[in-house]
Amino acid sequence: MAKHHIHAQINGDDVEYLCETEETLLDVLRDTLHLTGSKEGCASGDCGACSVMLDGRLVCSCLVLGCEMHGRTVETIEGMAQGETLHPLQQRFLEHAALQCGICTPGVLVASKALLERNNDPTETEVRYWLAGNLCRCTGYDKIVTAVMDTAAAMRKG
Amino acid sequence: MADTATNGHAQSFVGTRTIRPDGVDKVTGRARFGADFNLPGQLIGRVLRSPHPHARIVSIDTSKAEALPGVKAVITRDDFADQPSEFIPAGEMMMNYKDVVRNVMAREKALYEGHAVAAVAATSAAIARRALKLIDVKYEVLPHVIDAVAAMQPGAPLLHDDLFTAGVEPKPDKPSNVAKRIEIKLGDLEAGFKAADLVIEREFKTAPVHQGYIEPHAALASVSEDGTTELWCTTQGHFIVRAHCARLLGLDMGKVRVTATEIGGGFGGKTVVYLEPLAIALSRKAKRPVKMVMSREEVFKASGPTSGATVRVKMGVKKDGKLVAAFAELKYQAGAFQGSPVQPGVFCAFAPYDIENVHVIGYDVVSNRPKVAAYRAPGAPISEYAVESVVDEIAKKLDIDPVDLRLQNAAHEGTKAAYGPKFGPIGLEETLNAIKKTEHWNAPLRKWQGRGVASGFWFNIGGETCASLTVNEDGTVSLVAGTPDIGGLRASLTAVAADELGVPYDKVRPIIGDTGSIGFNFLTGGSRSAFSGSMAIVEAAKQIKSELCARACKLWEAKPEQVEFSGGAVRPLGALAEKVKPMTIADFAKVAGKTGGPIGGVGRINAQGAGPSFGTHMVDLEVDPETGRATILRYTVAQDAGRALHPAYVEGQYQGGAVQGIGWALNEEYIYGEDGKLQNAGFLDYRMPVASDVPMIDTVLVEVANPKHPYGVRGVGETPIVPPLGAIANAMEQATGIRFTELPMSPPRVLKALKEKGLRKA
Question: Does domain B421-460+611-756 have CATH number 2.60.40.420?
Fold first, then answer.
């Protein structure tokens, strides 16, 4: 079967690509478009390292197909900083040492941003349940949760 | 002429929470991990794995796979020369190349489900997958054995017919699955038990658990026509990878250049080779780059884990709480090849205590499971869990507070450890006292809640280390280290370099150099990289400072005693100070060409004097009698860091280790069916802690300086995973009145125990 010809918007850019039916969005991002910030930790939707926003909704990009993207909008970690300015979450993850190895960090950041866009004043429990789909093996989550709460507080102050 | 940015810089960065130099790349997705590397023309490699836990490989026919269009290379056991039996150090464990060559590619037999049997390289992943199906392997399926205790019984299926138990006299005349027996003795155990007023003996079981790094193993190899080999891989030690690959494939080390990519977690599991020699062998055959990445299922079935074990502990104590005798017998699963971490398990078992009479025996047992790999303080959490459980029971029986009982018996400076050395200054008592000072210590508990305490010990190591500092033309500094940075190493080393040279932190740019750009470095493991790396940096900086002083003497026509290096500059002393102005590093950089050439230093050391790190953990949990689920409510870690180079990353080690320990204690386990196949090779069924499973992890940084390190540093990475198992088991006992002697204390096991105790209706 011929490859699918897809037009999508990724991080604000109009992007065109060809993909096989069985290729996931994650495969397309990493292998075709060379956006390797999204990581594959499990390919089964359990670790969240491949988290992206699809039409404003948080998804595991390993669980959607590249050929489903026609006319749709995808935001990845590569689109999070604006020019030279890091997103407040990115800045506070650095300040709080909320990463050790950093492999889960892109997914955690994308998921955290999605949370703060819905709820700018989450409780610790809300942060923990929202991020329950993002595995981190290094930090024990403490500094991640602290960084997200601190960012929310700072963003509320404007 | 002074550069204001580096003039007389006196700020100290060691001990502060600087932003990690590699941080921006890691929060923007720019950082390149193992699977993020690609080369033009690369092929995709895939591994064919045994579906059987134990089978003789009668034949392998690869002809159909080789004939498939797009397949460029196929390798099997025939592509690797056999290796003689020879033990070499690998991290804190030993390995044997005869076994390594068989683990990377099965030879006579497949010894566990998932054992590599063949590999292909093809122009696409889809073609590679199709090619694997065309490889015809004829197996003669053999009876298997999964459990180590079962594997020790006479008549158990034998994995290796040339494996005779080492460490027993006389040498056995029959092979068995027991690779080794080791023991340590101190004092007179029998006399110790005779003098005891109370003796407690218990048997414990732990399940094998995986390191659980989120990044799967990945390697990209490129071999040219003249044999020049380049390899990019995710590893804790690229020099070790080079050594293994050169050995297994008969390559000159000088022709192999290995680059450690950013590493997405390792915890000991990335100290060995799996895909790396296969990728090189495929690339050598295909003459094209070959990229290989494991799936999560392959990671579970064919890499890691650490041992499951059976541990019997017997301890004797006087009425006043003085421990007088301690015995333990450890049986550790090694997986398919010998080399479990039973030796460190034996050494660590009673290390936190000052006991006169100690005897520990350990067995290293092979069975049809993946070969174990190091996992954070390898072996120690298992034996210390058993000991800490018995110590807790002793405290309860004698009605002594468990922290006070530990303080009464704690190892301290001068204590002779049963495994040999006398401890220097150590901080165990300080961690116990720190725990008592927390508000947590006195917080009230409700029904079904319990509080547990346990201590833990790990040796820590130093070892061969190189690091270089180069002063660039503008006075900035390039730092090259050779141990992969797994959790903030570059931040720590940069702070040390900045302080030593008296330059601002952001004027030092660190990288992890490849095997061609710096001298040999042992791997990142044994809590050694910040300890040893900072010592090498101090040495490199010393060379620079001494060189700059010599150059100043020439320029100023001065004697050595008339100058000194301080605050980032060579300063004239005495009368000379009235004639000439201090020269900063940047000043020297500008005139380097006229004063002797490029400026730099290389620390090449075999770091000695690693100070052990002790820790004490306290945990509160609540058991739900309806489901058997234990919820961690509160957690405090106190651990001796010697000196925290970067407090936030030290805390991170404490917190991360504690949560890994929580997973080990409560949920994680390898589950095998009767068929010898792993049933939970995925993150859904192998249940690691998620954010909603755990509370904040409070930390107390105890600092009892290590006198053998210029900054007082002790390694901190491993000890944090040692105490959680015992602390949580002790809290479970307080919450339920039940002493759990088998891990994990997962909801079904807890529920069953509650029903048996009549605490919940059946």
Answer: no
